[in-house]
């Protein structure tokens, strides 16, 4: 029987060897938007003779599928917010077949975000909580300043000390106003220690705003305890012919704004530039605001790479009458601000899997304040409240200097590792310097500090509907030494298609360096502490996104929990002389829920809504000079409830819309002895309309606080009443 068994085993083997081999083919191509933007790490589905095959696009949007049986294959993209243009199909034979897939935006479109991962990524692939405000949304609102736009982003609270151009602060997820990393065209723009004045920030040529919520120090190092705010200057669109933009408007409070700009593409070069002049008297005495601003971007396509430069320069001056709701106005004090941010970035491909980037940045903020005359003593009063002591001016003939500079440079490489890993790594170096203190005295400081960081991140496509991001950074800071900060995030699509469901979660750690005053100050009453540790954060969030009605409606819900540790607080060290310094003893917690809706029910109509609930609490404090900072108190100027509703419609030549901002009661302080510890909530309604006249000319009208509500974003500083503006703009056609 043994020979029979050997023969029965050999016959099938001979048949297999003799049978002709089935030829194997390949499909290669790319996935791009209608504007030509490559889509990395997008899942492509190929349905055909070999069944359903999935493949993932690389960093450049390209893909390749091997070992396909001959026959016809249809290509589809599994990415919420994108719609495949046409019906891309390919017939596979023996060899390679090429098919390129073009996708257009769904009614509620997908966004491509950079700040969340330091490279382009579809928002639906990220577990990191991120929002993008695009240029069209900004333009439709006809905003007078940037804070009116930021106030409509979930998890973000703003506070201004009055009208246009004054000090403006942003609080992200319950963090302090210096707990967010601010980038302008990729350049760190915060003052050393994290402070950034949004109040005088011009909207000029800002094409998109990316807000990343949750600690991002794993990529950006210092300042990113609560998140990142990235402002991006407009670039000329692909195929945009050289054109001109002119604009002029006027309105209440002697508001005047003039703007001129140009943009276009010629061969391998593209450019965009704009300049603006803004003046207004605001409403309060000595509160006039004057600003000149310039913003430009220039790029060159070098084939296998490119180079891009951008610059933003703003010069402004505003009168500062003080808390006029409680005290007589200071008629001679003023605040000046000069901002310059410049960047150069060069990219180069090595093969199809490595992208190298070199970048350099310069950011300088010069913010001197002046109060040359002594206006005399006064006693604050509000209603039936009267302070128990008099207050005085602090005149200074030479003013107070706050001039800081940040030089930054870095190298970054992105590597496609296999088909499912996109690895990003790099090195950052920053040189900080400044001149701060009362000019003409002996308390001026001129500190210097050099920081460096190395980071590594891997974006992983696990299966077909799970996207994982993991990374970390080693940061070396001249003030506090070396620290390691990690981050991880995951996005899981439970259901694909137009009405898909996506779950998200992320966790990270953040660090922030002390300010120059906190580390190096020489004032007797505020002595610097060179031994300060970094302020730290631990952040967690989880949520979901659901699309409805073939992506005409998107709903998102996110729960977050942030803990801020080792917060730097002022402490009196000698009660006999009231000498003070700074210590790492503060701790706070912020948790809550962010809800948002975005809808595009019909062509030309868009509706958005957001609500944020924040439960913030001081958990440890040494600031005993005011009870609002006591342990157990809610966080200063961060409301428990806030929300916004905005709508815009365009039909033919006419467009218009409105925005309603709702802010609840919040803890605040007058800080001048009146004993006020809370600030009432408010509602502000803004509205606008545009009418196309023809020949590239459009007229517009905008109103802010059209219901003329009385409120204060910061106690003591009345907000502007009803303000109406009207103007006209001219634009040449953008397309060839």
Short note summarizing the structure:
This protein is mainly beta.
Describe the overall structure.
- With 736 residues, the protein is mainly beta.
- The protein has three domains: 23-105, Immunoglobulins (Immunoglobulin-like), CATH 2.60.40; 112-228, TonB-dependent receptor, plug domain (Ferric Hydroxamate Uptake Protein, Chain A, domain 1, Beta Complex), CATH 2.170.130.10; 229-731, Maltoporin, Chain A (Beta Barrel), CATH 2.40.170.
- The chain contains five helices and 49 strands.
- The protein has a 23-stranded antiparallel sheet that branches. Strands 1, 4, 6, 8 and 9 form a five-stranded mixed sheet that branches. A five-stranded mixed sheet has the order 12-17-18-15-16.
- A hairpin with a 5-residue loop joins strand 33 (481-495) and strand 34.
- It is globular.
- The model is unreliable at 1-20 (pLDDT under 50).
What is the strand and helix layout of this fold?
Elements: H1 2-18, E1 25-33, E2 43-48, E3 51-56, E4 62-68, E5 71-78, E6 82-84, E7 89-92, E8 96-98, E9 101-105, E10 112-113, E11 121-122, E12 129-134, H2 135-141, H3 146-150, E13 156-160, E14 168-172, E15 180-184, E16 187-188, E17 206-213, H4 217-220, E18 227-233, E19 243-251, E20 255-266, E21 269-280, E22 289-301, E23 305-319, E24 334-350, E25 354-366, E26 369-371, E27 381-382, E28 385-386, E29 396-417, E30 421-438, E31 448-462, E32 466-477, E33 481-495, E34 501-512, H5 516-520, E35 522-523, E36 526-527, E37 535-548, E38 553-574, E39 579-599, E40 605-620, E41 641-651, E42 654-663, E43 666-667, E44 678-679, E45 682-694, E46 697-704, E47 712-714, E48 717-718, E49 723-731
Parallel strand pairs: 1-8, 1-9, 15-18
Antiparallel strand pairs: 1-4, 2-3, 2-5, 5-7, 6-9, 10-11, 12-17, 13-14, 15-16, 17-18, 19-20, 19-49, 20-21, 21-22, 22-23, 23-24, 24-25, 24-26, 25-29, 26-29, 27-28, 29-30, 30-31, 31-32, 32-33, 33-34, 34-37, 35-36, 37-38, 38-39, 39-40, 40-41, 41-42, 42-45, 43-44, 45-46, 46-49, 47-48
């Amino acid at each position: 029987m043994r020979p029979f068994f050997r023969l029965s085993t050999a016959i099938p083997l001979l048949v297999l060897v003799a049978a002709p081999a089935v030829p194997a083919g390949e499909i290669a191509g790319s996935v791009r938007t209608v504007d030509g933007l490559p889509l990395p790490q997008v899942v492509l589905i190929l349905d055909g003779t070999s069944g359903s095959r999935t493949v993932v696009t690389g960093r450049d949007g390209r893909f390749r599928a091997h070992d396909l049986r001959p026959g016809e294959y249809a290509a589809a993209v599994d990415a919420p917010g994108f719609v495949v243009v046409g019906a891309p199909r390919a017939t596979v034979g023996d060899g390679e077949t090429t098919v390129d897939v073009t996708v257009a935006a769904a009614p509620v479109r997908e966004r491509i975000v950079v700040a969340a991962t330091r490279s382009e990524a579809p928002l639906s692939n990220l577990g990191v909580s991120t929002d993008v405000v695009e240029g069209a949304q900004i333009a439709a609102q006809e905003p007078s300043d940037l804070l009116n736009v930021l106030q409509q982003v979930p998890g973000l609270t703003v506070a201004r000390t009055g009208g246009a151009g004054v000090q403006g602060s942003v609080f992200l997820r319950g963090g302090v106003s210096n707990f967010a990393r601010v980038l302008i065209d990729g350049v760190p723009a915060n003052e050393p220690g994290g402070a950034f004045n949004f109040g005088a920030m011009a909207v000029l040529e800002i094409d998109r705003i990316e807000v990343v919520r949750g600690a991002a120090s794993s990529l950006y190092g210092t300042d990113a305890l609560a998140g990142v705010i990235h402002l991006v200057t407009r670039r000329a669109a692909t195929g945009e012919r050289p054109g001109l933009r002119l604009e002029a408007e006027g309105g209440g409070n002697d508001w005047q704004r003039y703007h001129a700009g140009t943009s276009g593409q010629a061969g391998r070069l593209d450019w965009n530039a704009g300049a603006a002049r803004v003046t207004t008297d605001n409403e309060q005495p000595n509160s006039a605001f004057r600003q000149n601003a310039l913003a430009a971007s220039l790029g060159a396509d070098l084939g296998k790479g490119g180079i891009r430069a951008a610059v933003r320069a703003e010069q402004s001056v505003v009168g500062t009458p003080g808390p006029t709701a409680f005290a007589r106005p200071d008629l001679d004090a003023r605040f000046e601000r000069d901002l310059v941010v410049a960047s150069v970035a060069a990219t180069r491909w090595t093969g199809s899997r490595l992208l190298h980037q070199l970048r350099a940045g310069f950011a300088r903020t010069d913010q001197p304040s002046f109060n040359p005359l002594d206006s005399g003593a006064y006693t604050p009063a509000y209603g039936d409240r009267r302070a128990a002591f008099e207050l005085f001016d602090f005149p200074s003939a030479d003013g107070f200097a706050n001039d800081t500079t940040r030089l930054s440079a870095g190298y970054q490489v992105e590597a496609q590792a296999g088909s499912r890993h996109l690895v990003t790594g790099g090195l950052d170096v920053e040189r900080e310097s400044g001149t701060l203190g009362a000019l003409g005295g002996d308390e001026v400081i001129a500190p210097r500090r050099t920081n460096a960081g190395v980071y590594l991140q891997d974006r992983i496509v696990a299966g077909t509907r799970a996207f994982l991001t993991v990374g970390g950074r080693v940061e070396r800071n001249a003030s506090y030494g070396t620290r390691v900060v990690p981050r991880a995030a995951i996005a899981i699509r439970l259901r694909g298609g137009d009405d898909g469901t996506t779950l998200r979660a992320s966790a990270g750690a953040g660090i922030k360096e002390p300010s120059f005053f906190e580390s190096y100050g020489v004032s007797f009453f505020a002595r610097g502490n060179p031994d300060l540790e970094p302020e730290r954060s631990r952040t967690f969030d989880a949520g979901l996104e659901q699309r409805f009605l073939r992506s005409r409606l998107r709903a998102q819900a996110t729960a977050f929990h942030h803990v801020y540790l080792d917060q730097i607080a002022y402490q009196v060290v000698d009660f006999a002389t009231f000498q003070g310094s700074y210590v790492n003893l503060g701790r706070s917690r912020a948790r809550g829920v962010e809800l948002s809706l975005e809808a595009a029910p019909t062509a030309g109509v868009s509706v958005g809504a957001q609500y944020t609930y924040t439960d913030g609490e001081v958990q440890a404090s040494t600031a005993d000079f005011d009870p609002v900072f006591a342990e157990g108190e809610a966080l200063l100027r961060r409301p428990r409830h806030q929300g916004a509703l905005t709508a815009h419609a365009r039909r033919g030549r006419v467009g218009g819309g409105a925005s309603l901002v709702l802010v609840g009661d919040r803890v605040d302080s007058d800080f001048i002895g009146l004993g006020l510890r809370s600030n009432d909530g408010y509602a502000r309604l803004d509205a606008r309309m545009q009418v196309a006249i023809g020949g590239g000319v459009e007229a517009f009208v905008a109103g802010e606080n059209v219901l003329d509500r009385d409120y204060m974003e910061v106690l003591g500083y009345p907000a502007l009443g009803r303000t109406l503006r009207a103007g006209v703009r001219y634009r040449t056609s953008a397309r060839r």
